Amino acid sequence: MSDSELFLCLLPSILALLLIFILVQRKQTRLNLPPGNMGWPFLGETFGYLKPYSATSIGEFMENHISRYGKIYKSNLFGEPTIVSADAGFNRFIIQNEGRLFECSYPRSIGGILGKWSMLVLVGDMHRDMRTISLKFLNHARLRTHLLREAEKNTLLVLSSWKDNSVFSAQDEAKKFTFNLMAKHIMSMDPGMAETEQLKKEYITFMKGVVSAPVNLPGTAYRRALQSRSTVLKFIERKMEERMRKMEEVIEKKAEEDDLLGWVLKHSNLSPEQILDLILSLLFAGHETSAVSISLAIYFLQDSPTVLHQLREEHLAIARAKKQSGEMELNWDDYKSMEFTHCVINETLRLGNVVRFLHRKAINDVRYKGYDIPCGWKVLPVISAVHLDSSVFEEPHQFNPWRWQQNGNVKGNTSTSNHFMPFGGGLRLCAGSELAKVEMAVFIHHLVLNFQWGLADKDQAMAFPFVEFPKGLPIKVQHQKLV
Ligand code: HEM
Ligand SMILES: *[C@@H]1O[C@H](CO)[C@@H](O)[C@H](O)[C@H]1NC(C)=O
Ligand SMILES: *[C@@H]1O[C@H](CO)[C@@H](O)[C@H](O)[C@H]1NC(C)=O
């Protein structure tokens, strides 16, 4: 065969290849990706994105990007091509299409620390099963009786240690409260006991790693957190074995049947490894989030005397009525009757934004409002950006609980439910949203009735992007007796 004959034989294949190439090119160029900047190779724009900023703002990075590209833009974050959304409609679309077009996708480092069975990283059926167990455990009946009562007991325990004119970290106190409540509810561990304190200490190290750079080298926070994870796991494992022994000996007390550990051992067929990760992720999801929300309420209230005044009136009325009828403990009707308090809680969550954005990825090629989102790309719905969007909420930077008396005071012909999602939504809506509100309401009740407080040092909530008061929110308190 001569060269020209060979060429003729291969011509069809060459043409076919050329055609494929052109088609691929055309498909690529026909893709209408959102505008944006992919930044540096690999690093992308991650550093800009993670630069700390005030939690009641969306941060300079995002502000600049929105003004340059609009509310939906592309970027390169955490080493992956990413679509960032500050758009209310698109956020809702993403959240409602979980499992069909999008899927939960947290960075691998989170999975490494929380465990592969953690509810935050699981998807599909396994996620659904774990979620069902958690929801059963946080169900309405348990909230009404058990959890409300425990929340009140633990609130009073924390508040009773506050001395007049002493200065302390309100954030640490709030964390003490929510940790004790979760430890009790999950494993029947009592506050102040040596083992509870030890678990708390390990857990703090562990948390620092979850939010740090995932560099597994000696001396890094991530490495220490991995070590803490195994210490915490051994701890929970010991508890579990102890419990199984007791269950066999049938000397188990009623209270122990009632905690999550007892419940999963009896009523589920989870493996020990799955139980460990479930407990760890519940501690993780349900502890700092609500503690920081309580700290935010303490912060906003000391800065808003008129809100505090109206709030006190509401709780005084409840307390006086209870005193008259000789009741001691708050009950579910009391909780439900705290109308203005619920406005304060919503407003705190709207302005404070404890969870800023969710991690998702496209599991199909998606088209939304003319934009293409290729399968496999990460998608970050920034729920906080909608809460702080002046085209959605009137004067979004004002702490104004009264807006909730008009359904959030959102602009235009839409309901708040389209725009207010502090707890995410859809198939992954926060399993502890009602518990978090109960914790906030009960804590606020006893706080405003028994104390005056002010900041002992300037501090403000920052987004790292996890939200925290860098100085711990130092406050100074005085007792007051109103009822
Ligand atoms: C104010 C406090 C809280 C806030 C702002 C909050 C926020 C959230 C958000 C936004 C999600 C969705 C994550 C995603 O879709 O990727 C979530 C999930 C979750 N939260 Fe909360 N949370 C709070 C308190 C709690 C508490 C007290 C618990 C109690 C245990 C809890 C348990 C969970 C669980 C188990 C999930 C995973 C649900 C699932 O994947 O199906 N959270 N939370
Ligand atoms: C607070 O927000 C929730 C949505 O998360 C809404 O259902 C509720 O009605 C709001 N409460 C008030 C008092 O507006
Ligand atoms: C909002 O729109 C719906 C239909 O889309 C309409 O029935 C309703 O009257 C509108 N409400 C207001 C306040 O304009």
Explain how this protein is built.
The protein is α+β, with helices and mostly antiparallel strands and 483 residues long. The protein has a domain at 30-116 and 356-388: Uridine Diphospho-n-acetylenolpyruvylglucosamine Reductase, domain 2 (2-Layer Sandwich), CATH 3.30.43. Helices cover 55% and strands 10% of the residues. The chain contains 18 helices and 13 strands. The strands form four sheets. A five-stranded mixed sheet has the order 2-3-9-6-4. Strands 1-11-12 form a three-stranded antiparallel sheet, with no helix packed on it. Helix 9 (194-210) runs antiparallel to helix 10 (221-249), helix 13 runs parallel beside helix 18 (433-450) and helix 14 (305-325) runs antiparallel to helix 16. The longest helix is centred in the middle third of the chain and has 31 residues, at 272-302. The mean pLDDT is 89. Bound molecules: protoporphyrin IX containing FE and 2-acetamido-2-deoxy-beta-D-glucopyranose (2 copies).
Relative helix content: 40-55%
Q: Shape, please?
A: globular
CATH names the topology of the domain at 30-116 and 356-388 as Uridine Diphospho-n-acetylenolpyruvylglucosamine Reductase, domain 2
Q: From the alpha carbons, calculate the radius of gyration and give it in angstroms.
A: 26 Å
Number of strands: 13
How are the strands of the largest sheet arranged? 2-3-9-6-4
Q: What percentage of amino acids are in beta strands?
A: 5-15%
CATH architectural group of the domain at 30-116 and 356-388: 2-Layer Sandwich
Kindly, what is the distance between the CA atoms of the first and last residues, rounded to a whole number of angstroms?
Answer: 106 Å
Write out the distinct hetero groups bound to the structure: protoporphyrin IX containing FE, 2-acetamido-2-deoxy-beta-D-glucopyranose
CATH class label of the domain at 30-116 and 356-388: Alpha Beta
